[in-house]
Write a structure and sequence with these properties.
Length: 233
């Protein structure tokens, strides 16, 4: 499958979640969520990081741009839903999982909820996202290499999580996905927008209402909207 360049950010125009799952199962690597902010604020460093991995369309802004580029079937695949679908598709096949990220109480709540929802899931290890020393980092990477999980989820925010996963990938090939704050959403520590807002591509507006301070970030999306309107992507 060919990637599509959006402001130099290369995105796979997947047409369904199943297509993503099939691709990443055949091509072990790192799934990176791409939205309008990442496209708009791309730098040489972040472009390189995304482009050597598996960028997928996580937001409506990226989806619209892909459709403008001639991919009418490109679909939006929220990362906070995709990781659970990866688990659902693999856990009954005896695949193993490794989780990193969040505060200690959040990661423990995540593991407990996963075990309740996916009976028999094999979580070989987990830890919080507060890696304070180089020694802790190397111990984590070595533990992943020893335990050889089939899937690794890292919820630490970009680009920190992607850089860590790249180091892990060098030592152990697997399916990797960066999750940002998805553990917090999954365990109810952070509220996600109701489904009406999600279905109408207004999740950003709901979050803005809940967190008005986000206006400093989201005001820049006016520029992205202009790029879409004038087809500059």
């Amino acid at each position: 499958m060919d990637k599509v360049s959006l402001n130099g950010v290369e995105v796979f125009p997947f047409s369904s979640e199943e297509e993503v799952l099939n691709y990443v199962d055949a091509h072990k690597g790192i799934l990176v969520a791409i939205n309008a902010e990442k496209i708009l604020h791309a730098t040489e460093q972040t472009r390189a990081l995304i482009n050597r991995n598996i960028g997928y369309c996580d937001g409506a802004g990226a989806q619209i741009a892909l459709k403008q580029k001639g991919y009418p079937n490109a679909c939006k695949i929220p990362g906070c839903e995709l990781w659970l679908k990866i688990i659902a598709s693999l856990y009954q096949d005896n695949k193993t999982f490794y989780l990193v990220g969040g505060k200690q109480e959040v990661i423990e709540a995540t593991v407990n909820k996963l075990k309740a929802e996916f009976e028999g899931i094999r979580i070989v290890a987990y830890r919080n996202g507060y890696i304070r020393t180089g020694e802790e980092r190397m111990n984590l990477i070595e533990d992943v290499a020893v335990k050889k999980p089939d899937v690794v989820f890292v919820a630490m925010g970009s680009p920190k999580q992607e850089l860590l996963m790249e180091e892990m990938l060098e030592h152990h090939p697997a399916i990797y996905q960066g999750l940002g704050g998805s553990f917090d959403v999954y365990t109810g520590h952070v509220e996600r927008a109701p489904q009406w807002w999600v279905r109408h591509n207004l999740e950003f507006a709901y979050r803005l209402i809940k967190e008005p301070k986000r206006i400093k970030r989201q005001i820049h999306l006016v520029k992205y909207a202009w790029w879409l309107l004038t087809k500059q992507l």
